[in-house]
Amino acid sequence: MMRTSIARRLVQLALVPAALLGVLVVAAPAQAAAPTTVRLQSDIVAWTNAVRKSAGCAPVRLDAKLALAARSHSAWMARYGKFSHTGSGGSTFVVRVKRAGYVAPLSENIAWGYRDGRQVVTAWMKSPGHRANLLNCRAKAVGVGAVYAANGTTYFTQEFGSR
C-alpha cells in the first residue's frame, strides 16, 4: 500500500511542469548538440585574449558585473528576437553596464547565430567597429553573455570595461 502511494505521488510530480519546480529543462533537439553557454562565454574570452595578445594588448580579465550586463542584454535580444545595441527600454550599453554595478564601461560587441566562440570572435575581427573594441588596449575587463533563443539561435553580447 505504501509503495503504491509513493509511486502515485511520483507520477503526479512528474506531471507538474518543470518550470514550476525550478528544474533545469532539457535542451530542445536544435540545442542538444550546441555547446553550453558557459563554454561559449569562456571560449569567447579565450579567443578575445588571443587576438589581443597578437595585437600587443594585455589580456582582459573576466568581470562578474560586466558578465551580468552582457548576459542580460543577450537574454533580452534572444527573448524578443531583436539584434541591437539598443536594449530594453531604449537602454544603451553604458546604462546597462552601470546598472549592473560596473563604473567604467568602455564598449560593446554583439552577434547572433554563431555556433562557437571562435566563429564569434572571427566575425567581430572582420567588422571594423567590433575589431576596434577587441583591440582597444585600454580595456582591462570583459563580460560575455551567450543566450539561446527558444528557436535555438544564440545571441552574444561582449561588454568591455576600462577598470
Could you characterize the architecture of this molecule?
It is a single chain. The chain starts with a helix and ends with a strand. The protein has 163 residues and is an alpha+beta fold. The protein has eight helices and four strands. Strand 3 and strand 4 form a beta hairpin. Helix 5 (64-80) packs across helix 6. A four-stranded mixed beta sheet has the order 1-3-4-2, with helices on both faces.
Short description:
With 163 residues, the protein is of the alpha+beta class. The protein is built from eight helices and four strands; from the N terminus they run H-H-H-H-E-H-H-E-H-H-E-E.
Topology order in helix (H) and strand (E) letters: HHHHEHHEHHEE
Task: Classify the helix fraction into a percent range.
Answer: 40-55%
Class derived from helix and strand content:
alpha+beta
DSSP strand count: 4
Poorly predicted runs are 1-33
The largest sheet, given as strand count, sense and whether it forms a barrel, is: 4 strands, mixed
The strands making up the biggest β-sheet line up spatially as 1-3-4-2
What coarse outline follows from CA principal-axis ratios? globular
Whole-number average pLDDT? Answer: 84
Radius of gyration: 19 Å
Strand content: 15-25%
- Number of helix segments? 8
The end-to-end distance, rounded to whole angstroms, is: 65 Å
